[in-house]
Each structure stands twice: as structure tokens, then as C-alpha cells.
Amino acid sequence: MKSPRVYLVSDVRLYREGLTSSLAAQGRLSMIGSGAAGDAVAQIASLVPDVMLLDLAAQDSLALPRSAAAVAPAMRVVAFAVAEVAADVLACAEAGICGYIAKDGSVEDVVAAVLRAVSGELICSPRIAAMLFQRIAALSTERSTSPSLPALTRRELEIAELVSRGLPNKTIARELNLGPATIKNHVHNILQKLKLQRRGEIGGLRLNAAFWPAEPVDGETRPQPPSY
Question: Which domains does the chain have, with CATH numbers?
Fold first, then answer.
């Protein structure tokens, strides 16, 4: 089997360089590069790795998989330093991460998780597998009951779309010529309206017509939903 080409993402240089060296020494993965979260998408577009190995502690880590998928759709994402608790594992799954290594995982565990991810498999405990099944059942129930969500305002939709691209609040504030505190308040309102816990989950939504206001906001022409 050809060694998977792996790009490692971590905001701590000593951490990523040390892990890259340890993984390369194993001889089963081809480590083609590493970098901070802010540089990852550009590097992935250039290198097109088979797997992105993602430090979950990196900035906007849960938004990064979908941003990277836009430039490398076939790439698999494996997260490391993941706490094996329901909220964190489910957040990884919903962000598009297809494998993970717990915080106490070894280098051998990382290699095994990457190889399994490339093969379309997931290493997890029976408890985590049961939890994922429970989440699927809950989502199915939620879809069948179709609860109505309040529509977002035009400004909230603008900000939600930028958040879904993985942009931090400061960048959004500059782009929209608003204060960072204003953006933070809007993001809080968006999460409340859409019943989400983390900003990274916004990237998992299709901001379709259900979220768009039925009437023009503040006298403006009703905007059109973004195309995907």
C-alpha cells in the first residue's frame, strides 16, 4: 500500500515539528509538510495531501476541515488531542472530521488512525460508537418533527456565511467595517437562533431559504441565498 501523504496542522511550531519527525520515523506515512492553521488552506491547495492531521487545539480547528475541503475535496481529516467526551467527538464528526486520536494517544495510534481513515474506517471505542448511533437517531427525530427556526436578519446571514468560511471575528469585522464586539454579538445571536453550540457548526449548515427573512429587513431589498 502506498504511504498516505500527510500534512500536519498545529499552531505550536515545536509541537508540529516534533510530531512530524516522530511520524516520519515510523516509515508508514509520507509527511509532506506542516504549518499553522492560518496557512493550512493555501498549503493544502498547493500540496494536495491525502490526509490533513489536525491539532484540535489550533485556531478555528472545527471550521478548517470544510475550508480545506473546498481546495482538496478527496482529502481525509484526522484530528488529534481530542477529549473522548460526547460534545467533542460529535463536534468533530459534524465538522467533517473522519477520524480522531484521543489526548493520551501515542504516535502508533496516530499512524493507525490515519491508515484507517484512508481506508474509510474509523477507530473508536464501543462507547463512542454507541454515542454516534444515538446522535444519528436524534437527528432523524429532529428532521421528522421539523421544528421551525427563527429567520436570520440580512446582517446575521452575511456574518454566518463568512463564519462558515472559517474567518475569525477580526477578519469579518474588517470586511464588513464593523467593530469586533459587534461581530461577536451577532455570532452569539446566530448560534442561539440556530440552536448551535459552537461557531464551527455553522460551517455544517446550508444557509438555505429556511433561514432567510420572509420580508425585507430595514427597508432593504430581500437578499438572495448564497449558492453552493
Answer: 5-137 (3.40.50.2300), 154-211 (1.10.10.10)
Residue position matching grid coordinates 515539528: 17
Mean pLDDT over 59-75 rounds to 93
> Based on C-alpha coordinates, what's the Rg of the chain?
19
**What pLDDT digit, counting tens, does each position of 172-227 carry?**
999 899 998 899 999 999 988 888 888 888 866 655 444 544 444 444 444 444 44
Q: Give me 119's grid cell.
A: 481506508
Roughly how many angstroms between the first and final C-alpha of the chain, as a whole number? 35
Give me the half-sphere count of Cα atoms (radius 13 Å) on the Cβ side of residue 199.
24
Distance set, CA 120 to CA 7, 32, 110 (Å): 18, 21, 15
Predicted model pTM: 0.62
Distance CA 156, CA 28 (A): 46
CA dihedral 116, 121, 123, 124 (to 10 degrees): 160
Between CA 58 and CA 81 the distance in angstroms is 10
Q: What is the pLDDT of residues 124-163, one digit of tens each?
A: 888 888 888 887 887 777 665 545 556 788 888 889 989 9
What angle is formed at CA 69 by the lines to CA 65 and CA 87, rounded to 5 degrees?
25
Comparing C-alpha atoms, which of 36, 40, 37, 56 is closest to residue 102? 56
